[in-house]
Each structure stands twice: as C-alpha cells, then as structure tokens.
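ok new one. same drill as before - structure tokens go in, u give me an amino acid for every spot. 298 of them this time. try not to just spam alanines like last time pls lmao
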C-alpha cells in the first residue's frame, strides 16, 4: 500500500515521481536536448507508457504525428509543428506504439536563475500543455532550439563553467519565445501580469491539501477577500473558492485513478479527514462518487 505523507507542502501520494536524470546529461549539466526516443525512460525502471510524474520540465517539439499524450487526465493529440510543455508534478503518460518524432528538451528546476524563471513563466500550470505555433513562430522556436542543441552537444570548446553559462543564456532565449507563445492571448497575458493572482495561485499549489479557506489565503497574502475575488475573477473567470476546489478535485482524481489507496485516505490526503465529507464534495464537483470514478478508470 502506498504511503501518504506531506513533505515540503507537497503530497507524497504513491504515484512514482522521477527526478531529473543528471547521469544522462552531457557533462552533468541540468538540462538535455536531443532527438525524441520513445523507448528511452527517465530511469531504467520507469517505462514511459506507465502513469508517472517527473520533477523537471519537458518540452517536445513534434516533427511528426499524430501522437496522443495524456497530461493530467486530458488526452492531447499532437501533430508535426506542435509543442507539448509538461511541467514538474503533472501526471502524464506516453502512448505505447506511437512514433514520437522531433526534438525533446528537459530541464531541471534550479538550472535557471529566479528572475528568468519568473520572466519565462515556467510554473504557469494554468496554461494548456499543448501549443500550436504558426509557421513564423515555429521557425523561430526551431532555430532557437537548434542553437541550444548545438551548444549542448559541444562539450569540447569551452570549460564547464562557461559552457553552463552559455547554455543558460541559450535556454533562456528559447523559453522566452516559448512562454510568449503560451501567453499570447490577451486573457493569458493579463493573467501573467496579475501579481495578486500569481501569489494566490502559488499559495494554493503549495497548501491546497491542508487549506481550502479563501479567507485564510487572503489573510496570509495580506489582501482583502474582495481584492482576491477581483484578481481571480479577472484571471480565470472563477471565484477563489472554485479555483481552490478545482485543484483539490484534480489531486483527488489523480490519487483515485493511479493509486490503490482507500477512498478515506485519498480524502485525508486532500484535506478531508472525514470520508463522508470527501465523498459529498467529490460528487458535488464531478457528479460521480469517488468509487464510481475509480471504477470507470480500472
């Protein structure tokens, strides 16, 4: 039976989470870029077509398709020219038998400085993973990625410290283009600029398993409840309570679908010590009981 624990604000839920495979990276730097290989796992015991989490970023630029890839209970169909961006902590699965062709970039959290992380929106979990650049955007992305790949593969002309600095600069340039694509709509751009919502989103991601109270989040962030309502409404169209509830439901779905934990323990892991209250909450938001949801996916 999987063990449940709360560590560093995150739920240890029994879903395998694989760290960045430093040993597979040229010279051990905190990133990799190369041709997609669907048969290569993150680690030797991590079949890519099994449900799992990773604690690093993956960006796949497809040169063929169609390919179906599941990210957080949504099946995405990617074709040539599409980009799939999977962020740390998201549950995903490669599709067995599909031909993944193109270029894949992986990046370890902490490889880039904080200012670059903020500028590139690396943790914008509110944005969809699948991106469809137009021809001009794709050409620019591919040129930037190709430059990054050349620098990554060149382990001979610079000492490691300079090579790492060059890789960070090239990676930042690519991610700035990618984040601009991801936030190109007016609504997404406004959401990115909204500091109040950004702080709220980060707080929910950190504490949703133990805190479901809008007032508590507002107090902790130093905002009035009304300010929080305005900011979340402008960014998402939801109330703060609905935003929190959606995050709780997503985590509950993950645990129900991909672990064998008793339903009561699933509820406890997302902040419901009482199993009956958890079942009522889950049914209210999904029109299914936890048991029926789990049964449908088995």
């Amino acid at each position: 039976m999987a063990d449940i624990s709360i560590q560093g604000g995150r739920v240890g839920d029994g879903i395998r989470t694989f760290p960045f495979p430093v040993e597979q990276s040229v010279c051990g730097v905190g990133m990799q870029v190369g041709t997609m290989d669907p048969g290569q796992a993150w680690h030797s015991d991590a079949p890519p077509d099994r449900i799992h989490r990773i604690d690093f970023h993956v960006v796949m630029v497809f040169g063929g398709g169609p390919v179906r890839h599941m990210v957080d209970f949504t099946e995405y169909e990617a074709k040539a020219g599409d980009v799939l961006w999977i962020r740390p902590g998201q549950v995903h699965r490669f599709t067995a038998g599909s031909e993944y062709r193109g270029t894949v970039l992986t990046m370890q959290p902490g490889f880039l400085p904080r200012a670059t992380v903020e500028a590139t929106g690396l943790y914008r979990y509110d944005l969809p993973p699948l991106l469809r650049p137009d021809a001009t955007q794709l050409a620019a992305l591919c040129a930037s990625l190709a430059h990054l790949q050349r620098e990554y593969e060149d382990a001979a002309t610079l000492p490691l410290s300079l090579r790492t600095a060059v890789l960070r600069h090239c990676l930042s340039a690519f991610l700035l283009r990618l984040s601009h694509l991801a936030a190109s709509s007016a609504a997404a751009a406004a959401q990115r600029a909204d500091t109040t919502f950004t702080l709220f989103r980060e707080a929910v991601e950190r504490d949703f398993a133990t805190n479901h109270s809008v007032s508590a989040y507002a107090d902790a962030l130093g905002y009035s409840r009304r300010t929080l309502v305005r900011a979340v409404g402008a960014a998402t169209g939801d109330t703060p309570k609905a935003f929190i509830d959606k995050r709780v439901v997503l985590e509950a779905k993950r645990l129900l679908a991909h672990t064998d934990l008793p339903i009561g323990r699933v509820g406890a892991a997302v902040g419901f010590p009482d199993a009956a209250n958890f079942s009522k909450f889950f049914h209210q938001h999904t029109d299914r009981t936890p048991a029926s949801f789990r049964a449908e996916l088995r």
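Residues 18 and 45 are 10 Å apart (CA to CA). and btw The first strand starts at residue 5 and ends at 7.
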